Amino acid sequence: MSAKHARPAHLLLLTALAVTLLTAATAPPATAASTAASRLGDCGPGQLCLWPKEEFRGRAWTYELADTDVDSCVALPAGVSARALANRTGRPVTTYQSVQCAETGEFETYPGRGTWVPRSPYEIRAFKIWER
Q: How many other C-beta atoms are found inside a 10 Å radius of the C-beta of residue 79?
């Protein structure tokens, strides 16, 4: 290839590089917090959040210690179940497949310091928030 044809190729490469750098420099930065919240599901401090669909999809039901009996079985409304959860209550939470919190079905306890579960292995129909 002659030097005459090499220059236009170099110019095209440099132009493409400049456009890429300019686009990256002017794009709004994505913060780690906003990216994590959209991936993990939005659940505030002190809350237990339950989503009807996996991957934190659908409208979440939220429960707080102020309006939830500790150490008591709390059934979700009739006909409702959850497939994803976030526990930010600061206390352990056990989720149950059974509406009565019976241990004959599936159940699992999650720590309370920021636990996100995008896919429950069973449909959650009830839960208990433990004292400690």
A: 6
Tallying the residues shown for the chain, one arrives at: 132
C-beta neighbour count of 99 within 10 angstroms: 14
In a domain, 74, yes or no: yes
Query: Rounded to whole angstroms, how far apart are CA atoms 60 and 66?
Result: 18
Mean pLDDT split into 10-residue runs, the chain, 132 residues = 48 39 37 49 94 97 94 96 97 97 96 94 98 86
C-alpha neighbours within 13 Å on the C-beta side of residue 16: 6
Query: What is the tally of structural domains in the chain?
Result: 1
pTM of the shown model: 0.70
